[in-house]
Here is the input.
Amino acid sequence: MKEESVNVSEATILDAARAVFTEKGMAGARMQEIADRAGINKAMLHYYFRSKEKLFDRVFQEAFQQFWPKIETQLNADMNPKLLIKGIIESYVELFLEKPYLPNFIISELTRDPERIEKLMQKSGVAPIQLVRYVKHQMEKGVIVEMDPRELFINVIALCIFPFAARPLISRIIWENDQDSYTAFLKRRKESVFQFIENIIFND
Amino acid sequence: MKEESVNVSEATILDAARAVFTEKGMAGARMQEIADRAGINKAMLHYYFRSKEKLFDRVFQEAFQQFWPKIETQLNADMNPKLLIKGIIESYVELFLEKPYLPNFIISELTRDPERIEKLMQKSGVAPIQLVRYVKHQMEKGVIVEMDPRELFINVIALCIFPFAARPLISRIIWENDQDSYTAFLKRRKESVFQFIENIIFND
DNA sequence: GTCTATAAAAGGATAGAC
DNA sequence: GTCTATCCTTTTATAGAC
Here is the structure.
């Protein structure tokens, strides 16, 4: 049993890579910086992952799987729609509270290279399609107000994501750089988003 | 009077630079590609703008001024609040229909380098603060439902921006890559965003 | 103002010793 | 597995002729 650290694990490298890639983006990231943060040298990076591209792919794929969530796990036909929507909002906001870098990272890297989506879609299922079908059903029953279910989905997600994605802009300008206060605002989002839309979408 | 083109104007370079910077970002952009699109060589870029950094600053500043809008121009105390909100939504959606790259460009570059905001704020006024004051007044009068005016502002902007910012993601997955249909959806946003929130925020 | 040529530096990747 | 040294390409930036 050695006292000092043994192998550089993949996990150590991935942690460092995630930090650098999410902060600087694929194009702005430097292999040197990743190596430094992982406490190793560049050669080791290429030993574990053959290239910058492959390392990025790995990091991005893991991020996308978290971002593109497991909505269908909560989904079955006789569920309370209010609780369902509330649940979606809560799990999204909680995710972004924990990993605030996710929204921007996903969106901006997909904007630069949209082809990437095709690769990813095979790995993770297409949950929202089922969700759309469920919501449509609830609309026909008169529980939810009639509208394009996709539009409803986008509106909910928009309200969840935007305050995290645009934090540097909003917190500095609208919150006058009071970061503590802005963090508190984000924590309240789980309730406030639902409260905001509750009266629009449900025919009580 | 010559037939063929005369000087390479600053404007020609800026057009090319805007195209490349907004597509690839600061880190991913290449001076060579900007030169090619402008129909000149790299040396000319450095002749007009001393460095990549300075060229980017110019492009970004112009983008930010469009993005950070002239809300206060529409603002006076006895205005109809419904029309005001409607007007804000319309001018934002119209802006993004015309320049879809703006949201991502601004947000992702500010995320990478938040310090940049300080420089920019001096150049363009801080309109939304006035807006917040106006909305607060309308709430006290009972015209608009009581809530944090900043939250209302963010929610409205979120609904306007997100479908443009996340287009690659949403159009491919939720719209199953039917780009025409998604474009039509975006064009309808001027009306649909207002319609969505109208019943929440106004005590009719 | 515009070009060619080139400097100077950075960054990704590999060879080879241990 | 881990390191040092090095290769090779890309990229920003400048010098200098016209």
Remarks:
- Chain A is about 70% helix and 0% strand.
